[in-house]
Amino acid sequence: MDKELVLYNAITSMADRYKGALTPELALGADLYAVKIKKQLMKEGFTEPEAEAAKRQAKASNKV
Q1: Out of the domains of life, which is the source (predicted)?
Q2: What is the four-CA torsion angle of 54, 56, 59, 63, rounded to 10 degrees?
Q3: CB of 7 closer than 8 Å to CB of 52
Q4: 47: domain range?
Q5: CA neighbours closer than 13 Å in the CB half-sphere of residue 23
Q6: C-beta pairs of 8-16 under 8 Å, 24+ apart in sequence
Q7: What is the pLDDT of residue 62?
Q8: What is the distance between the alpha carbons of residues 31 and 35, in angstroms, rounded to a whole number?
Q9: Number of other CB atoms surrounding residue 36 within 10 Å
Q10: Domain total of the chain
Q11: Cα–Cα dist 15/11, whole Å
């Protein structure tokens, strides 16, 4: 699969979790999910800075 598509899907998936986090417990769950996705991205060949940037972008997309 194309790296850009994988990255887009990961960011979208993480952002959806962050958007649904209405309580502190759900926010913690969203953070744990984002760490899981970040590790998966690194297994798929992304560097740690790329994966961390995707996590930050997903978290920031929730704040309007």
Answers
A1: Bacteria
A2: -120
A3: no
A4: 3-60
A5: 3
A6: 10/37, 10/40, 10/41, 10/54, 10/58, 11/54, 11/57, 11/58, 11/61, 12/58, 13/37, 13/58, 14/54, 14/55, 14/58, 14/59, 15/57, 15/58, 15/59, 15/61, 15/62
A7: 72
A8: 6
A9: 11
A10: 1
A11: 6
As a residue count, the chain comes to 64
Give the pLDDT of residue 33. Answer: 97
Q: Provide the pLDDT for residue 18.
A: 95
* pLDDT averaged per 10 residues, the chain (length 64): 92 95 94 96 96 95 69
